[in-house]
């Protein structure tokens, strides 16, 4: 519509200009110089008015764009002008001004909103220009944490907190770093993290400083509690068979003492003496193994040095049999040991291997509780040049959805379990360059298979 009206205005002015030219030429032919001069002046005025008519929209547009450049959206354009084409142009300018003004208000409100959020959170945040180290912005949480009234530059941290200054200087985008720092209100653990971004051709680094002292203390306490539960569980796993064996030996010795009191001249029972000697040897060996296991567990996070020896599987099974059979038979569980060939050997740390087998047997004992004709089989064989030891039971089995989780530390499906036995067994097997596997079927039983490379 604006262009249509502009064309009409130009056409009318062009006709008037042609008419004035005709009149001027008519007077020129009759040598009336006064009229000719007047006509020329009128034509010049018409040309000037025509130029002004054509360019006034451009002038208004230039005026509007200059205001936009200066971000001055308060300027209003007269919509009541007598020029109908300019009315619509001014109306469009005012509409654009109102839109920009609303966007500016929304942007400012969003900025204030984000500022309020950043001021309320308990994590210290500061924006730093990477090249100069100048602090662009810092929230109250960081000022409160560091007890600083203001922070203009990273370099101002160096005199008061040199460790923090050095840590921030070495902090890379996407990196997290834990720093122990002495603050006015006491020593704290600070978690530093950084993220980089570019704004208006400037490279800025956003640094977050979180006081995690309470969280670290709670985590350490929880870790200690878990460690104590695990150690108690593992120690009980070893102490229970020792106590059972000692109780059996005590009862046999009591019976022998009573028999000796009735018949003072009777000769000692050589079989009882042999069993007692064997039981004491087993108790001694398992106690030493328990001490070594405790030392091993204490240094679990360090590089372990295995005490590798040639282990005769027959002797290993005899030791496990003497330790576990009294406890299993007392609960009516059939315990079977067999290996093929009889002279089977492997290279392993016998103390840790015993601990793995004891854990697996105790798990099997728990699995067969309440089952008809409970049975546990400890077997060993040679297969494909590798030594394989299996612990099989006819217990309740492991649900399929739990099979992938049973080796995860602290995962357990039993109320009194620690969730560390199987994960520790897997760790010990990895140290031996071997592996542990499990096959289970609910209602049928479970087989744990230890494979050692020859």
From TrEMBL:
Listed InterPro entries: BphY/WalK/GraS-like, HATPase_C_sf, HATPase_dom, His_kinase_dom, Sig_transdc_His_kin-like_C
EC assignment: 2.7.13.3
Keywords, alphabetical: ATP-binding, Kinase, Membrane, Nucleotide-binding, Transferase, Transmembrane, Transmembrane helix, Two-component regulatory system
Top-level lineage group: Bacteria
The keyword Nucleotide-binding appears for this protein: yes
Recorded catalytic activity of this chain's protein: ATP + protein L-histidine = ADP + protein N-phospho-L-histidine
Entry annotated with the keyword Transmembrane: yes
One of the record's GO molecular function terms: kinase activity
UniProt domain Histidine kinase: residue ranges: 230-454
Residue ranges crossing the lipid bilayer per the database entry: 7-25
SUPFAM superfamilies (alphabetical): ATPase domain of HSP90 chaperone/DNA topoisomerase II/histidine kinase
PANTHER family: SENSOR HISTIDINE KINASE GLRK, TWO-COMPONENT HISTIDINE KINASE
Protein name (Swiss-Prot/TrEMBL): histidine kinase
């Amino acid at each position: 519509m604006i262009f249509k009206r502009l064309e009409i205005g130009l056409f009318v002015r062009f006709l008037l200009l042609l008419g004035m030219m005709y009149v001027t030429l008519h007077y020129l032919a009759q040598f009336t110089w006064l009229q000719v001069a007047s006509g020329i002046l009128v034509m010049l005025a018409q040309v000037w008015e025509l130029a002004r008519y054509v360019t006034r929209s451009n002038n208004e547009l230039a005026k509007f764009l200059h205001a936009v450049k200066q971000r001055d959206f308060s300027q209003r354009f007269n919509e009541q002008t007598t020029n109908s084409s300019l009315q619509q142009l001014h109306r469009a300018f005012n509409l654009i001004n109102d839109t920009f003004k609303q966007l500016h208000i929304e942007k400012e409100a969003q900025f204030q909103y984000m500022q309020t959020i950043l001021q309320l959170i308990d994590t210290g945040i500061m924006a730093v220009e990477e090249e100069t180290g100048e602090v662009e912005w810092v929230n109250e949480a960081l000022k409160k944490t560091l007890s600083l009234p203001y922070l203009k530059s990273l370099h101002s941290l160096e005199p008061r907190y040199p460790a923090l200054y050095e840590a921030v200087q070495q902090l890379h985008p996407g990196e997290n770093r834990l720093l122990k720092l002495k603050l006015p209100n006491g020593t704290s653990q600070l978690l530093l993290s950084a993220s980089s971004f570019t704004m208006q051709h400037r490279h800025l680094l956003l640094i977050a400083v979180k006081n995690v002292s309470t969280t670290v203390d709670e985590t350490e306490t929880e870790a200690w509690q878990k460690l104590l539960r695990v150690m108690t569980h593992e120690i009980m796993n070893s102490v229970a068979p020792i106590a059972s064996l000692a109780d059996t030996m005590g009862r046999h010795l009591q019976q022998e003492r009573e028999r000796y009191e009735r018949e003072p001249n009777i000769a000692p029972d050589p079989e009882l003496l042999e069993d007692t000697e064997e039981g004491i040897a087993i108790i001694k060996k398992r106690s030493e193994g328990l001490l070594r296991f405790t030392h091993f567990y204490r240094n679990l996070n360090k590089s372990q040095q295995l005490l590798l020896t040639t282990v005769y599987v027959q002797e290993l099974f005899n030791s496990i049999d003497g330790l576990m059979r009294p406890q299993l038979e007392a609960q009516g569980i059939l315990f079977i040991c067999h290996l093929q060939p009889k002279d089977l050997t492997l290279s392993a740390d016998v103390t840790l291997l015993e601990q793995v087998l004891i854990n697996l047997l105790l798990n099997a004992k728990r699995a067969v509780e309440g089952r008809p004709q409970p049975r546990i089989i400890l077997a060993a064989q040679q297969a494909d040049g590798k030594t394989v030891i299996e612990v099989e039971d006819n217990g309740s089995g492991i649900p399929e959805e739990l099979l992938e989780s049973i080796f995860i530390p602290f995962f357990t499906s039993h109320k009194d379990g620690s969730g560390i036995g199987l994960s520790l067994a897997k760790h010990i097997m990895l140290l031996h360059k071997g592996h542990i596997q499990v096959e289970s079927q609910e209602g049928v039983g479970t087989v744990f298979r230890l494979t050692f490379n020859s």
